[in-house]
Design brief:
There is one protein chain. Helix content is about 15%, strand content about 40%. By secondary structure, the protein is an alpha+beta fold. Strand 7 and strand 8 form a beta hairpin. The chain is globular and about 50 Å long. The model has no long low-confidence stretch (mean pLDDT about 85).
Length: about 180
């Protein structure tokens, strides 16, 4: 739904999230890049693709991020000088970036129930993580380039990630849809 100024609710929420994150940046700290990414809970063999539900602000000193879909959710931050290791790699033209840092505890959604490998339901818990994983829609986004530059400049150890790339037919597995039926 469009508002009076012609923007939709998603655009408004992104702007609000950016303003909120920029509000946490002191005047003596310069903003290097802003944009969206997707924060992944873990890094698997397929990093996927899709929307970036996390708004990210990269400054000269740190990385601030928050889900732009939840205005009430607090932001997270990682100081660039605390990053001890980083890894990056591409798959299907998306880039994954893994930042290793000291333990950080934060509140996040977790499965409420678990039996063997089945997980279901929604609950919130304090989770401690030492890695933060981001997926970017392309390797040449402002944020990805800014993080590469900042971490390389600081001489943080880097590792290249390698992902298998399967053909489109293998990835979609019988999910092909007929868009136009042929008329006889």
């Amino acid at each position: 739904m469009k508002s009076v100024d012609g923007t939709n609710s998603g655009t408004r929420r992104k702007r609000e999230c950016e303003a909120r994150l920029r509000g946490h940046v002191p005047a003596d700290e310069s903003v290097v890049a802003v944009g969206t990414a997707e924060e992944l809970r873990s890094l698997g063999p397929d990093i996927g693709s899709g929307g970036g539900w996390t708004f990210v602000v990269v400054t000269s000193e740190r990385l601030l991020f928050a889900p732009w879909t939840s205005p009430k959710k607090s932001h997270e931050e990682i100081r660039l000088d605390e990053v001890t290791h980083w890894a990056s790699g591409t798959q299907y033209n998306c880039e994954a970036l893994v930042l290793t840092h000291p333990p950080k505890t934060r509140r996040q959604r977790v499965p409420a129930h678990r039996i063997l490998w089945f997980r279901w339901g929604n609950a919130e818990a304090d989770v401690t993580r030492t890695e933060t994983v981001f997926r970017f829609s392309r390797p040449d986004t402002q944020i990805a380039k800014a993080l590469h530059t900042a971490l390389s400049t600081r001489s943080v150890p880097h590792e290249s990630l390698h992902f298998e790339e399967r053909s489109r037919e293998e990835r979609t597995r019988d999910s092909h849809v007929v868009l136009h039926e042929e008329k006889e």
